[in-house]
Amino acid sequence: MTRAFRQALAALSLTVAAPAAADPPALSLPIDCTLGTSCYIEDYVDARPGEGQRDYTCGLKSRDGHRGTDIVLLSFEAMVQGVDVLAAAPGVVDATRDGMEDVAVSAETREAIRGRECGNAVRIDHGDGWKTLYCHLQKGSLQVQNGTRVEAGDVLARVGLSGLTNVPHVHLGVLKDGKIIDPFNPETSETCGTATGDGLWKDAPDYHRAGLFTAGFSGDVPDFDAVKSGRARIETARGYSNLVLYGHVFFAEAGDRLDFVINGPEGEVFRNDVTLEAPQAQLFRAMGRKAPEDGWPAGEYRGYVTLSREGHILAVRHADVEVMR
């Protein structure tokens, strides 16, 4: 367990009550959404010791040192509308935190949340050393307190943007005697490609190895090296600049679809899609619009790139750019 994660756990308020000894919890989805339709899994527990990352299948869907399962909403607008975070299994709430703002992390805010990377949170004790942790909850949305007994599916809070995150999602952490457990591969968190069955899940969510590394804005269609290095990305643009949105994809299959949407201060600016013709380990696509004759209105613009397969959403990435006149 990383030092930051230990600090995050220690910072939560605890109670002395705990349920009686129990078998490992059988987990249900900890969020009121439909995978592939209104949410998707972006990151899994990092199964690679040391530097680098691998998910439980030896795939790319994790981050170095990541200690949970991230279930992500498709947009910030969905968060504003409200999506419930649910108890994954029966137990007793033994830790909560509220009061942190729902603000995407930045270089300016990173130090202020140190030791509270989990954001607003709920922890549930399931007995016999098993606990689940729910991070990045919306400020003021908690429906439980220390000592509350919950059943699987009970509402804990709403999905938010608190703590160390820049996208609305719930981070589900599973612990046994304080050790991080991968619910997809509970026998070990240091190997990948060995998991069988549903793990700790009642019905394990399907795994898809394809995803999006990133999305970004550029002034023109970039070259692939600039996309991979990050040099293509712009954060500000002039009113008469082109607005090009790109998405960097991994493990695409023939027939996969990429949807591009750009919204600005006056509403939708651009929408288009492309169907991929061949499987590729990595690729990028870019789409956008030239500036209108009188230039873009000044303000914040947000783009979404969505990867889907046969109507099932596999990944979404967003990018922001500020247009200045």
From TrEMBL:
User: Known InterPro entries for this protein?
Assistant: Cell_wall_metabolism_enzyme, Dup_hybrid_motif, M23ase_b-sheet_dom
Keyword Signal assigned to the entry: answer is yes
Leader sequence range is 1-22
Q: Which GO terms describe its molecular function?
A: metalloendopeptidase activity
What positions belong to coiled-coil segments?
none
Q: Is Signal included in the keywords of this UniProt record?
A: yes
Residues forming the M23ase beta-sheet core domain are 66-183
- Name assigned to this protein: M23 family metallopeptidase
Q: Which organism is it from?
A: Roseovarius bejariae
